[in-house]
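Weekly structure sync, notes
Attendees: PL (lead), two postdocs, one rotation student
Agenda item 3: pending single-chain targets
PL asked that the sequence for the first pending target be pasted directly into the notes so everyone works from the same version. It is reproduced below exactly as submitted, 151 residues in total.
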Amino acid sequence: MTDHLAVARAFAAAASRWPVTPRFDPVERWYHRIATAGDHEVWLLTWLPGQETEIHDHGGSAGAFHVYAGTLIEDTVSAGGSGAPRITARELGEGAGRRFGGHHVHRISNRSDRPAISIHVYGPALTSMTKYRIGPAGLEVRTVERAGAQW
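Predicted structure, written out during the meeting:
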């Protein structure tokens, strides 16, 4: 079984071999798939201050991410005791990483005052991502995006 975090760290250690140079887009997060293998794929993402994902899952894929530069906050969403989702925030600085399973729901944001770069590995390769919102009934599906159609 592939250690997704080890793969992300290996790519971080070999930045001079990335097939693209990271870019920063003031309108939306920039991302680019930089590698694929039989059982996983690797993405490079950039984050300007204030940029974040929506609350989302990875369509059943497990994975990991590694902060190459800067600081990111991961808000993990889990079921709360009263039915309301519980959000747990974790700050990940440069060099930190995190593994997650196939049923992981989270949001990542750059709440710092400097840009950040991260490497994400998913296995198997992403086929869909479900985006959620927290509503009166708890976690509610907003959209389901499909690989090749929306990204």
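Discussion points:
- DSSP finds one helix and eleven strands in the chain.
- The longest helix spans residues 4-13.
Action: rotation student to compare against the earlier draft before next sync.
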